[in-house]
Amino acid sequence: MRRVTGKQVVEVGAAEFDAMVERHDGVVLDVGTGDGKHAFHLARERPGELVVALDAAKDNMRKVATKAAANPKKGGLPNLLCVWAAAERLPAELRGVTELHVLMPWGSLLRGVLGSDPAMLSGLAGVCVPGAKLLITLNLHAWRPPVPEVGEHPEPTPESALVDLAPRFAAAGWRLDDARYLDAEAVAALSTSWTRRLNSSRERFDVLELTGVIPS
Predict the structure, then answer these.
(1) Which InterPro entries does the entry link to (predicted)?
(2) What are phi and psi of 48, to 5 degrees?
(3) Per the structure, how many domains does the chain have?
(4) CB of 98 within 8 A of CB of 133?
(5) Domain that holds residue 21
(6) pTM (predicted TM-score)
(7) Residue 81 · residue 3 · CB < 8 Å
(8) Contact yes or no for 128/78 (Cβ under 8 A)
């Protein structure tokens, strides 16, 4: 497992990661974390849990990784682990995830969440413990007009997500329980740079939230 600590990238072995898991009450995996601000917010709000911020672009995480590596008395967060990896090729050491977040996915991650990459969905389910919570948020403006990543998938609604996406999730070991539009306050609470940037540049910003569990 490749951990970004700021300017450095260090290897974290299975035994070391297992020890981190055992020291915490749960593991939150933020897939496609981008600059890691959502993960940083979670780690600060939940000091008893290990938060793993995972992204295929290591440079985006460097600033947050540097802040997390500081002395806790100066704002450091020893429970935040920034991992350089793609969702399609998860580190072999990763395990014990009790909560899975995929917020505002783009590119291959968005295609995968829409059901175009069942192997990716199955891989993410495989690092979770039974009953792990699932949170996905979709930027619906990706369909207005449609970007290439959405392919033939139509813009999801709360109703269509439960009809169309739920079976694709179930085939990969996920269970979709609920889908709803988020209001402005809920969008802001996600604490991501994407939501802040997009919300400030649009008169209206529509986000669909999907929640569920990894049943087994």
Answers:
(1) NpmA (IPR056262), SAM-dependent_MTases_sf (IPR029063)
(2) -85, -5
(3) 1
(4) yes
(5) 2-214
(6) 0.94
(7) yes
(8) no
